[in-house]
């Protein structure tokens, strides 16, 4: 689901854009009251998934609480990565400090977006809790503490990455590092230059 | 369909052959066990289910002549012994060990060393999240083979994935080295390359494009886990809720693309999906082999759907 309010898209359910709570349900499929939450949905990966959540949260300044609930996605521990990003940020190599997940690298968000995320939201750690009643109770608790809008939205653009312009030598092009002739013979391409 | 000018290394792990020219050896399929909702609680019924699934994979592997082995997912240190003992009791084939936690991977190696099973183990995987504890464990308890993951979040293009293998892209805990050098320094001689599947919107097609590039540059067996791209597709997630048959068809189709791009192995997802994956791969393998025989005069290995499935 994507929209102008949440420009990075993702697999989530948009709710009340004025609500102060967003919920990450990790591997769970929970049905939450749309009037009480700005958006909610699962999150699979400890890198790209976390990036999408951060970008979508800072684009709506009404979101002041992020509840992370449900069972971790096996093989990813994305919830751990998100919570540690909020607590500790990233190191000089863009790795989430303290994250236990396998590949918790944040490569597509500018640092400004991470700092904004850290300031804008309070994270509520409900990892391993998957019953909707407890989660809704936490949503209500957050709503009672709503400090109001954070201010202007921050629409994050992906960090640009340099790409080498490909130089092709063969009739049938698949990648600049290899030549593929029309009979299916693959050979290493000469260095581009 | 294709042939590579670069000489291809065939990696043999206890009789399971990975790699070679496209069509030469069948695609090796890794089915993941102890992963997914049915293994959320590892109790008696879960282990019984695991035994059932392991037997099912081996049966269809024999029927199709497509080699099938396990990717054993270890969630937590406390399950290492139980899971490994269960696998050793259920199969004589080699298997991969897989965990998101480097510490758990290290502990699993330690246990495998203790029970004398390291010669059957494919370590899944050496990746940019490697730790010094993990490297120490790999040197002390060296597995027979390892999968080296080209995933590079800084550059998801093919060049970025190659860079992760060659230089480490400046991201490894061992500075100045790429993952291939790290693997060799650890004493692992048999290497398989995984291009590192990425979702739609994150240069997903590079997952497949990188296969012939890796094989052409390194001459090593190469594969991927393309089901991750399918599983992360939002539209399909919604469709699957009401039409699981559609998902199953797409899963078989997605996996079949790997051999068509010269892939040598696939980590195809939960072992419970073996019934749909093996016949699809048998078809792709037979087609690739026939194309290589007819056009390039390739000699297809003896145990292959090309010979076995008339």
Largest sheet properties of chain A: 5 strands, mixed
Helix percent band of chain A? 10-25%
Tally of strands of chain B: 11
Domains of chain B, number: 1
Provide a count of the helices of chain A. 4
State Rg of chain B: 18 Å
Salient structural properties:
heterodimer; A: 193 residues; alpha/beta; 2 domains; five-stranded mixed sheet; three-stranded antiparallel sheet; 4 helices; 8 strands; B: 310 residues; TIM Barrel; eight-stranded parallel β-barrel; 12 helices; 11 strands; 45% helix
Overview in brief:
Chain A has 193 residues and is an alpha/beta fold. Chain A has two domains: 12-144; 163-193, no CATH class. Chain A has four helices and eight strands.
List the helices and strands and how they pair.
The complex is a heterodimer of chains A (193) and B (310).
Chain A: E1 12-14, E2 21-26, E3 39-42, H1 48-58, E4 65-70, H2 78-88, H3 111-120, E5 122-127, H4 132-144, E6 172-175, E7 178-180, E8 185-188
Parallel strand pairs in A: 2-3, 2-4, 4-5
Antiparallel strand pairs in A: 1-3, 6-7, 7-8
Helix pairs in contact in A: 1-3
Chain B: E1 3-4, E2 10-13, E3 16-19, E4 28-33, H1 44-64, E5 68-73, H2 80-90, E6 95-98, H3 102-114, E7 121-126, H4 132-140, E8 145-149, H5 158-166, H6 179-185, E9 190-194, H7 206-218, E10 222-224, H8 227-231, H9 234-242, H10 244-260, E11 265-270, H11 274-296, H12 305-308
Parallel strand pairs in B: 4-5, 4-11, 5-6, 6-7, 7-8, 8-9, 9-10, 10-11
Antiparallel strand pairs in B: 2-3
Helix pairs in contact in B: 1-2, 1-11, 3-4, 5-7, 9-10, 10-11
């Amino acid at each position: 689901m994507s929209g102008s309010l949440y420009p990075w898209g993702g697999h989530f359910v948009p709710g009340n854009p004025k609500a102060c709570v967003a919920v990450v349900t990790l591997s769970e499929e929970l049905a939450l009251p749309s009037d009480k939450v700005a958006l909610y949905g699962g999150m699979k990966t400890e890198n790209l998934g976390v990036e999408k959540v951060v970008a979508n949260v800072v684009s709506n300044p009404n979101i002041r609480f992020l509840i992370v609930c449900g069972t971790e996605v096996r093989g990813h521990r994305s919830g751990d990565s998100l919570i540690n990003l909020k607590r500790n940020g990233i190191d000089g190599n863009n790795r989430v400090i303290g994250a236990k997940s396998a590949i918790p690298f944040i490569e597509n968000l500018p640092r400004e977006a991470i700092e904004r995320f850290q300031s804008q939201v309070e994270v509520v750690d409900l990892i391993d809790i998957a019953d909707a009643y407890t989660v809704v109770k936490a949503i209500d608790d957050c709503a009672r503490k709503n400090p109001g809008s954070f201010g202007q939205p921050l629409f994050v653009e992906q960090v640009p990455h340099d790409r080498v312009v490909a130089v092709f030598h063969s009739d049938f092009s698949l990648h600049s590092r290899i030549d593929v002739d029309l009979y299916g013979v693959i050979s290493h391409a000469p260095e581009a230059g | 369909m294709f042939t590579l000018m670069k000489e291809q290394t065939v990696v043999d792990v206890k009789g399971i052959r990975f790699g070679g020219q496209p069509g030469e050896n069948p695609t090796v399929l890794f089915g993941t066990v102890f992963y997914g909702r049915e293994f959320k609680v590892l109790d008696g019924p879960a282990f019984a289910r695991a035994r059932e699934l392991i037997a099912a994979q081996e049966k269809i592997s024999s029927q199709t002549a497509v080699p099938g082995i396990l990717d054993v997912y270890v969630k937590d240190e406390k399950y290492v012994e139980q899971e490994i003992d269960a696998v050793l009791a259920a199969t004589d084939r080699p298997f991969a060990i897989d965990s998101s936690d480097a510490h758990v991977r290290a502990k699993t190696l330690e246990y495998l060393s203790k029970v004398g099973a390291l010669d059957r183990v494919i370590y899944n995987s050496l990746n940019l999240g490697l730790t010094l504890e993990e490297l120490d464990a790999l040197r002390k308890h060296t597995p027979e083979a390892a999968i080296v993951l080209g995933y590079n979040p800084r550059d998801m293009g093919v060049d970025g994935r190659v860079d992760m293998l060659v230089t480490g892209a400046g991201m490894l805990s061992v500075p100045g080295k790429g993952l291939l050098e790290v693997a060799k320094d650890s004493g692992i001689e048999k290497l398989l390359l995984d291009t590192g599947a990425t979702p739609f919107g994150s240069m997903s097609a590079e997952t497949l494009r990188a296969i012939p590039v890796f094989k052409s540059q390194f001459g090593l067996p190469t594969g991927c886990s393309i089901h991750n791209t399918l599983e992360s597709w939002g539209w399909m997630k919604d469709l699957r809720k009401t039409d699981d048959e559609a998902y199953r068809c797409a899963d078989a189709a997605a996996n079949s693309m790997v051999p068509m791009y010269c892939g040598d192995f696939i980590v195809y997802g939960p072992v419970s999906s073996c019934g749909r994956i093996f016949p699809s791969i048998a078809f792709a393998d037979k087609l690739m082999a026939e194309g290589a025989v007819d056009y390039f005069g390739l000699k297809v290995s003896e145990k292959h759907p090309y010979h076995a499935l008339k």
